[in-house]
Amino acid sequence: MAIRKIATIGHPVLRQVARPLTLEELRSPDTQRFIDDLVETMFDANGAGIAANQVYEPIRVCVVCVKDNPRYPYKPNIPLTILVNPAIELDATETFDNYEGCLSVPNLRGLVPRATRGRMRALDREGKPIDLEIKGLTAGTFQHEVDHLDGKLFVDRVKDTKSLATWQDFERFHMAGFVERAKELVARYGS
Ligand code: NI
What we know:
Layout: H1 23-27, H2 29-44, E1 49-51, E2 61-66, E3 78-102, E4 105-123, E5 129-135, H3 136-149, H4 154-157, H5 167-189
Antiparallel strand pairs: 1-2, 2-3, 3-4, 4-5
This protein binds nickel (II) ion (NI).
């Protein structure tokens, strides 16, 4: 396993629509090794998730895992989930303004409206189908990762640019109010 270099905003690979993998490609030793690297890179950087094109491989693979995350102490835990060729279906009747950050957008956070309910279909690393109901704050984390595979970054979805903040100023001026709202959402959805 190896920790990969993470592309930052401005690099064209982040704007590429990642291509789906065939089952044969997915099951190849190279891809399996790549998935191990992706997971290790996410853990090393304390990310809540990471997408393949963030480490310069424009293929439709992303991973999500939250376990008492120091970058996002208010996020509920999410078990390690590897998503291959994910497709997301959103119920946009309710949205939540989520303060997002990204390993590819260093030292910036901003408010992004995210659907609080949806369904995620994908394959796991062995090619078996995954069908997940996504809800609450956790739904936003999945949407952020699938956006990467479509060449989108959270900054594209920030509606009010006045919400943009460095991590330090997020903590100083915005975190307390946001965590109150986030806790209420998590209590309502259980995730
Ligand atoms: Ni990101």
